[in-house]
Amino acid sequence: MTEADNLLVLDQAMRRRTIAVISHPDAGKSTLTEAMLLHAHRISEAGAVNGKPGRRGTVSDWMAMEQERGISISSAVVQFEHRGTIINVVDTPGHADFSEDTYRVLSAVDSAIMLIDAAKGLEEQTMKLFAVCAMRGIPLITLINKWDRPGLSALNLLDEIETRTGLLPTPMVWPVGAAGEFRGLLTSGIDQVTTYQHTVGGSTIAQETPIRPEDATQALGQDYATAVEEDALLAATGRTHDTALFLAGQSTPVFFGSAVRNIGVRTLLDALVSYAPPAAARVMTDARARPVNTDFSGYVFKVQSGMDTAHHDRVAYVRVCSGQFQRGMILTHAQTGRPFVTKYAQHVVGRERHTLDTAWPGDVVGLVNASSLRPGDTLYAGEPAEYPPLPRFRPEHFSYAQPADTSKHKQFRRGLEQLNGEGVIQVLISPNVGAHRPLLAAVGPMQFEVVAARMQAEFHTDVTLEPTRFTIARDLAPGIAPLLNGLRGVEVTTRPEGGDVALFEDRRSLAAIERAHPELDLAEPAHQ
Ligand code: G4P
Predict the structure, then answer these.
(1) Ligand 1 atom 19: residue of nearest CA
(2) Could you give the CA distance from residue 66 to residue 300 in angstroms, rounded to a whole number?
(3) Atom nearest to 261 CA in ligand 1
(4) Is 203 in the pocket of ligand 1 (CB under 6 A)?
(5) From which residue to which does the signal peptide run (predicted)?
(6) Which of 356, 319, 388 is nearest to 90 (CA)?
C-alpha cells in the first residue's frame, strides 16, 4: 500500500459509523430509519421504507411471509451520509421472535441506537438485544421516541434505564413539556431550546427554530422552567456525557424525539457523527488487532438465500474490517485457503440492488452467488487474516422434521443442509431416530416457519414438523457423549458438521444428571 492509499483508507474508516437500531416491535424503528433517510436527502418524502402492510412501497422486506405480516425477517443495510459521515444502518429483524440472525447482525456494528417507546419504557425484546450489546461491549445511544403522545415521565424513563440496564443515562437534550405536550427540546447544559414545526404526517423535515434562554420563559412558560430545573438536577448528580464511559459501554447519551414527526432526528444524527465510534481495528483469532489501513479483510456475518426465488441466489453479507474493497478483487477464503472472485458485489437493500464497486472499513458488501461462504468466514487480500467465529446462541426450541412426501427426501436433505449452513436453523441428528428425521433446533420458534416457507419455495418440499419437549441444549466436549448415552431424560445428538449436543427436557432433568454425574461438565457456557 502506498502512503497515499494508507491515508485514504484511514480517512474513509474514520468517516464510517456502522450501527443497528435495537428496539421492541412497534417502537418506531422503521419510522426512524425513514426519518434518517429523509434528513440525509436519500428520500424526499417519508413513507417509502416501511414494510408494513398497506403502506407505500417496500425497501426492507423481501419475502411474501414478511410482507403478509409486516415484519422484517431478513436484514437489509441502509447507507446514507450526514455531515460528511457515512452512516450504515444494519437492520435487525424487528419481530417479537428471535433468531440467530438477530444476534449475528449485532456482531457487525460498532454502536447501536436503543429506541424506546416513551409510553412503554424498556420492553422485552429491547432488553434481550441490550444484553447482546452489553456482552459485546457495543456502545449505545438511547432515543426515547413518540414524545408527541402521552407517555411516562422523562425522569422515570431515565430511572428505568439506569436500574434495568445498569447504564448511566446522560441526557443530551431534555424535553420541554411532558410526553404528549411536547413544546421543544432543551440542549442539555445550555438552556437553549429548539422548537419544531412539523409538516402534516411528518413526511418532510420539521422546521427548527432556536429560542434563546432569555426569550424561552416568555415563549414556553413553566414547562421551560421545569425542563431547566430537571436538566440541572441531572447534571448535578453526575449524569452528564462522558465520551470514555460511553465508549466503554457504561453510559448512554439520551435523546428525546418523535420519529413520525421528524423531531429530534437531526440531533440524533449529529450525535452519531460526533460521538459514535468509527470503524476501528478488529481483533483476529490470533488475538492481534488488524489495523483498518492495511490490506482488505472482512467477515461474513449473514448469508441469505431465496431473496430472488427465480434465480435461487445466495447473498453473503460481508462487513469490511480493513482496507479498500474493489469489485473484481480476488480474495482468499481463510477457511479453505481457496481464491474467491468478487465479481458480483452488490449493495443490497431488501429487493433493491446496486452494483457496488468500492467499499471501506465499516461498510457492508453483499456478495451474490457466494455458495462457498458461511456465516463467520473471513475473506482477505495480502497479509492473511482470520476473524473469530460468530457466537452460536443456545437453541431453546426443538422439532423433528421430515418431508411430507417421502419421495422428496433428497430435496429435503439438500434444503436442510443449505439452511443449516446459512445458520437459519441448527440441524441435529439423533442416532436413535436417524438422519431421515433430523431435529431442528431454533433460538426462536419463528425460525421453524421460515424453514417451512423456504423449503417449500426453494426446494419444493413440504416439511412436517413435530415439536419435542426438549428446551435445553448443551454442546458436549469430545468423549462425553458415550457417558450420557442411555441416561434418562437426555438425548444425545450430533451435528452433521461434527460435534455432539445433549438435549434436556428442562432444568430439573439437567440438574438430576449433573447431580448423578458430577464428573460431566454440563455447565452453561458463557456467551462469547
Ligand atoms: P417498528 O419498525 O419498530 O415496528 O415500528 P414502526 O416504525 O412501524 O412504528 C410503529 C407504529 O408507531 C406506527 O404506527 C408508527 O407510525 C408509529 N410511530 C413511530 N414513531 C412514532 C412517533 O414518534 N410518534 C407517534 N405518535 N407514533 C409513532 P402504526 O399505527 O402501526 O402505523 P401507521 O398507521 O402510522 O402507518
Answers:
(1) 28
(2) 23
(3) 23
(4) no
(5) none
(6) 319
Residue 308 DSSP code = S
**Residue range 282-380, CATH number:** 3.40.50.300
Q: pLDDT tens, position by position, for the chain (528 residues)?
A: 788 999 999 999 999 999 999 999 899 998 998 889 888 876 665 554 444 433 333 333 334 444 444 334 344 688 889 999 999 999 776 555 566 777 788 999 999 999 999 999 999 889 988 988 998 899 999 999 999 999 999 999 999 999 999 999 999 999 999 999 999 999 998 888 999 987 666 667 788 999 998 899 998 999 999 999 999 999 999 999 999 999 999 999 999 999 999 899 999 999 999 999 999 999 999 999 999 999 999 999 988 775 555 555 678 889 999 999 998 899 999 999 999 988 766 666 555 566 778 899 999 988 877 778 888 999 999 999 999 988 777 788 999 999 999 999 999 999 999 888 777 899 999 998 988 999 999 988 878 988 898 899 889 999 999 999 999 999 898 888 888 888 888 999 999 988 999 999 999 989 988 888 887 777 766 443
Do 411 and 461 touch, CB atoms closer than 8 A? Answer: yes
Q: What is the grid cell recorded at 180?
A: 404528549
Total-model pTM: 0.84
With a 6 Å cutoff on the Cβ, whether 125 touches ligand 1 is no
- Give the phi and the psi of residue 337 in degrees, each rounded to 5: 75, 5
CATH superfamily of 3-275: P-loop containing nucleotide triphosphate hydrolases (3.40.50.300)
Q: Whose CA is nearest to atom 26 of ligand 1?
A: 146
The CA-CA-CA angle for residues 274, 279, 280, to 5°, reads: 110
Between the CA of 350 and the centroid of ligand 1 the distance, in Å, is 20
Relative to the CA of 34, which ligand 1 atom is closest?
7
**Angle made by CA atoms 378, 382, 383, in degrees to the nearest 5:** 75
Question: Nearest residue CA, atom 15 of ligand 1?
Answer: 28
| Candidate of 24, 31, 182, 198 to mutate for ligand 1, largest count of ligand atoms within 8 Å of Cβ | 31
Q: Which atom of ligand 1 is nearest to the CA of 54?
A: 36
Q: Given ligand 1 and candidates 26, 95, 265, which is best to mutate, with the most ligand atoms within 8 Å of its CB?
A: 26
Would the CB of 146 count as within 6 Å of ligand 1? yes
DSSP element (H, E) containing 446: helix 446-459
Question: Which of 59, 260, 261, 262 maximizes ligand 1 atoms within 8 Å of its Cβ, making it the mutation to test the pocket?
Answer: 260
Q: Which residues of 265-275 are buried (b: 16+ CB within 10 A; e: fewer)?
A: bbbbbbbbbeb
Q: Domain 397-516: give its CATH superfamily.
A: Peptide chain release factor 3, domain III (3.30.70.3280)
ipTM of the complex: 0.97
Cα 52 to averaged position of ligand 1 atoms, centre (Å): 10
Q: Do domains 3-275 and 397-516 have the same CATH topology?
A: no
Domain residue ranges of the chain, discontinuous segments joined by +: 3-275, 282-380, 397-516
Regarding the beta carbon of 258 and ligand 1, being less than 6 Å apart is answered yes
Closest C-alpha to 148, from 210, 196, 79, 211: 196
Which amino acid residue places its CA nearest to atom 34 of ligand 1? 55
